[in-house]
Amino acid sequence: MKEHERLNQILKTVERPIDLPIFTGEMVLATLQQIVSISNDHFGKLAQGNYWRKAHDRVIDKYPSVRSFSADHFGKISCDRDLLERELTDADIQGLRLWVQKFIEECERSNRNFRDILHNSNISLSATYFLET
After folding, report:
1. Which residue segment(s) compose the domain that 107 sits in?
2. Are strands 69-71 and 77-79 parallel, antiparallel or unpaired?
3. Residue 109, phi then psi, degrees to nearest 5
4. What is the domain count for the chain?
5. Is residue 15 part of a domain?
6. Given its phi and psi angles, is residue 132 left (phi above 0), alpha (psi -120 to 50 degrees) or beta?
7. What is the DSSP string of the chain?
8. CB atoms inside a 10 Å sphere around CB 41
9. Would residue 9 count as lying in a domain?
């Protein structure tokens, strides 16, 4: 067996893609709260709460695990307590990233430059990961 074939075999045993970060519920909650904090400078809390909830409704059928997270009427994000210390699965992360994307789409109805605003803010690497499409 050639060296590159042997390495390919080894890499196939890796459960998650190497470029995907590992997130716990607590890390994602902090990331989402950071996005909320930046969004507070551009939208009222009620509007933001509506955007998060509309976006949530758009993704829960495809990603039921997103139900573990919620947004109240004022845009405050929370998650189930038992999720805080657990490592999230790739499917969990995909669903949460989609939720953020749908939230941004809702925001862009009022402010077309909102995605750029988020990217140009002093945002964490984990938040940047959730902003990518």
Report:
1. 23-131
2. antiparallel
3. -70, -30
4. 1
5. no
6. beta
7. --HHHHHHHHHHT-SS-TTSPP-BHHHHHHHHHHHHHHHTTTS-HHHHHHHHHHHHHHHTTT-GGGGGEEE-TT--EEE-GGGTTSBPPHHHHHHHHHHHHHHHHHHHTT-TTHHHHHHHS---HHHHHHH--
8. 8
9. no
Domain-located, residue 8: no
Alpha-carbon span 34 to 39, nearest angstrom:
9
- Is residue 83 included in any domain, yes or no? yes
Burial of 59 per CB tally in 10 Å (0-12, 13-18, 19+) = buried
pTM for this predicted structure? 0.82
By the 8 A CB rule, do 131 and 115 touch? yes
Per-residue pLDDT of the chain (133 residues; tens, 9 = 90+): 554 455 555 444 444 444 567 889 999 999 999 999 999 989 999 999 999 999 999 999 999 999 999 999 999 999 999 888 899 999 999 999 999 999 999 999 999 999 999 989 888 888 888 988 6
